[in-house]
Amino acid sequence: MTDRTYQRLDPQQAAERVKASINLRKRKETRFLWLGKTAVAIALGFLVLLFAGILSKGIPGLFQYYVTLDVRLDARQLDPSGQMTVESLAGGDFDGAILTSLYEALGNPEGRKEKREARRLISSGSSQRLMNYVLDNPEQLESMVSIQFAVDDDVDTFLRGLISRETPEADRRISDQLIGYIDALEAEGRISYEISDYLFFGSASRDAEMAGIRGALVGSILTLLVCIVIAFPLGVATAVYLEEMAPKNRLTEIIEININNLAAVPSVVFGIMGLAIFIVAFGMPRSIPLVGGIVLALMTLPTIIISSRAAIRAVPPSIRDAALGVGASKMQTIMHHVLPLAMPGMLTGTIIGMAQALGETAPLLMIGMVAFIVDVPGGVTDPGTVLPVQIFMWADFAERMFVQKTSAAIIVLLAFLISMNAAAILLRKKLERRW
Amino acid sequence: MVQNTNQVEGRAVPEKTLGEIQVDNPRMSARNVNVFYGEKQAIDNISLDIGMSQVISFIGPSGCGKSTFLRCLNRMNDTIDICKVDGEIKIDHQNIYDPAIDVVSLRARVGMVFQKPNPFPKSIFDNIAYGPRIHGLAASKVELDQIVESSLQRAGLWEEVKDRLDQPGTGLSGGQQQRLCIARAIAVSPEVILMDEPCSALDPIATAKVEELIHELREQYTIVIVTHSMQQAARISDRTAYFHLGKLVEVGDTKQVFTNPRHELTQDYITGRFG
Questions:
Q1: Which CATH class is domain B7-121+191-270?
Q2: Are A380 and A289 in contact (CB under 8 A)?
Q3: Is A325 an interface residue toward B (CB < 8 Å)?
């Protein structure tokens, strides 16, 4: 379709046209560059906003208020049978000992109403704390010790300034009398604001000041362990088989398409499947990390398989040729050359999968890991819960202090995630160092 | 489709190979070999003997099937799913496409050096030691050390790398890498070494070194080399085979092929009229 009347441009004209087109091109490039920069800036802005929000809410949640009381450890009161065992201590009157010292610190209030208000000051878990203290330090019996007890969650909320003195007494959760006591203790320097030991070492509790994430953290670790032990070998083996050994026919094509589809299945569906198969059909117990791990493994398998296959495909064919050329069998070529070279990519995929699994809530709700479990799971068959589910539960509780606890747990979850990713990056760097 | 392109400037590719396809003392011999990539025929009825302790070079324009034929000789074409080979290729009177033949042991007897140097991403020592290790050639660590040293010495690389055997093989220069690959091939003591354009990625000095090496290796090994350089074929080979459009046009003593080619196509190619 050449136009026969076309005249060739003379060099001058051509140069002018080129110049005009260059300007246009440059403008386009600049515009594109700015678009990119703006996109990155917006993304970074949201990230900063997100982190600022989480940290500003969550960091106060890592701390809580404690009241220091001087408790007299009277052996006859605390350990009436004198055996110093958990059983014998259960018969001791720890509450009495604590209340005596609390009343003392408040100038021995008289009257039932005053005493009742005073009792509302400290956490109901205080007697347990004192018992643990005695068990750990039996030599200090019969002496006077200063121990920090957590304050009740309403008092904590008041101390944070979230309950105003100006609110009419009838509308707030703590009375004028109690506020008076708090002021007195503060004046004596008995109230302190410290890193919350309940948060890190405590387990699930309805009392906000005693609620902790230890059980959920251990549950998360156990669940992820089960998940990686199942998903990684299975995923890598599937990827190697599909990529290196499977004949290319309709059947493998269907399998391939379905694996890709599986990656897009909503996670809650895996939960329903886990419920139907493992719990209903196989009769496995509810709420255990083993079932949770298996369900999450099924969910992360497609991610691992897809990224592993990509990693295997990225190994240069010349390396396979070299190995086959010196007489390595197919299996040896895969094990000695392809897998080591593909390993960093496979690990990346696995870590992405694990990160997904760590943050997953919905499928675990289906298999009952949402139960209220106080004990820390000791193994994969003990009932437990996981961090995101714990966060989900806390977010649902009404007490004001759970807001901070929830944010603090989110920080812990993020820290877990970041350290997992960091470990993966280090591992990858180490493996990739093979020139 | 083959019929249409069968003619180059009016010259037909002969139905039968010109020259002597047979030799007195063959190490390998191919008879009526056809190779198909799916529907497309890449090798058309080629018969050729490869003489013991000889260097034979395959020349011809791109896409003429010389590399495909070379890769048939140690069944490297097996890795391509759609590739089908028929005919007969024998090594010491044994058909290598016999189902009873173990392809792993075949490749230990027929080694290969590739166009692009492809050392393993491992140390120089491990590059050489890999073959002997998987075939169980070395009875002890000392013996393995000896195999590595002698292989590197034969490849003329020992003096250059003896102080850094633990360094990565990929850190060597291109020419050194290719000699490392040759050392890796001879470490398993093959009978035949196939070389697929071993110098095409190398500069003239490295090329000269590799050619010198081939010259020394010919005494002990049978070498088949595919090359695009006519000068190289003329310098290093005893026999030369000219391929064209999947057919073996002509084969004979290198001197005769280059000075007195039997076919016009060969004549045109070696004088640089096409290709």
A1: alpha beta
A2: yes
A3: yes
Residues of chain B with pLDDT under 50: 1-7
Of B81, B104, B118, the CB nearest to A327: B104
What pLDDT, on the 0 to 100 scale, is given for residue A370?
Answer: 84
Minimum-distance CB partner of B76 among A318, A325, A434 = A325
Residues of A in contact with B106 (CB under 8 A): 327
Domain interval for residue A145:
62-195
Q: Which of A415, A359, A408 is nearest to A57 (CA)?
A: A408
Q: Which residues pair with B29 in a beta bridge?
A: B49, B90
Q: Are residues A57 and A147 in contact, defined by beta-carbon separation less than 8 angstroms?
A: no
pLDDT in tens, A317-337: 999 999 999 999 999 999 999
Q: Measure CB to CB from residue A322 to each of B74, B108, B114 and give the nearest one.
A: B114
Task: Return residues 144-173 of B near A (CB < 8 Å).
Answer: 168, 170-171
- Inspect the interface and report whether the beta carbons of B107 and A325 lie closer than 8 Å: yes
| ipTM here | 0.87
Same domain (yes/no): A96, A157: yes
Shared-domain flag, residues A168 and A229: no
Residues A361 and A246 occupy one common structural domain: yes
Whether A130 and A176 map to the same domain: the answer is: yes
Q: What type of residue sits at position A335? A: M
Domain ranges of chain B: 7-121+191-270
Q: Does A435 touch chain B (CB under 8 A)?
A: yes
Q: Is residue A283 domain-shared with residue A343, that is, in the same domain?
A: yes
Quick one: A284 and A423 in the same domain?
yes
Which one, of B37, B53, B24, B68, lies nearest residue B248 by Cα?
B68
pLDDT > 70 fraction of chain A, expressed in percent and rounded: 98
- Smallest CA–CA distance from A329 into chain B, residue: B104
From A316, A327, A336, residue closest to B107, measured CB to CB: A327
Task: State the best of A248, A326, A330, A333 to mutate against chain B, taking most chain B CBs within 10 Å.
Answer: A326
Is A322 within 8 Å of B120 when comparing Cβ atoms?
Answer: yes
Give the span between the Cα atoms of A304 and A357, in whole angstroms.
12
Q: Is residue A47 part of a domain?
A: no
Asked if the structure places residue A134 within a domain, the reply is: yes
Q: Please judge whether A324 and B168 are an interchain contact, meaning their C-beta atoms are less than 8 angstroms apart.
A: no
Domain presence at residue A357: yes
Does residue A266 sit in the same domain as residue A345? yes
The pLDDT tens digits of the residues spanning A153-179 come to: 899 999 988 888 888 888 888 888 899
| Contacts with B171 from chain A: Cβ below 8 Å | 435
A327:B79 CB<8 A: no
DSSP one-letter string for A149-187: EEBPHHHHHHHTT-S-TTS-GGGSSS-HHHHHHHHHHHH
Diameter of chain A by CA atoms?
Answer: 118
Mean pLDDT rounded to a whole number for chain B: 89
What residue type is B132 in one-letter code?
P
Q: Give A314 to chain B, closest Cα distance, Å.
A: 14
User: Is A210:A123 a contact under the CB 8 Å cutoff?
Assistant: yes
* Residue A88 domain-assigned (yes or no): yes
Environment class of A20 (CB within 10 Å of its CB; exposed 0-12, middle 13-18, buried 19+): exposed
pLDDT at B3: 40
Residue of A nearest to B194 (CA): A325
Predicted confidence (pLDDT) per residue in A264-275, tens digit:
899 999 999 999
Based on the domain organization, do A84 and A149 belong to the same domain?
yes
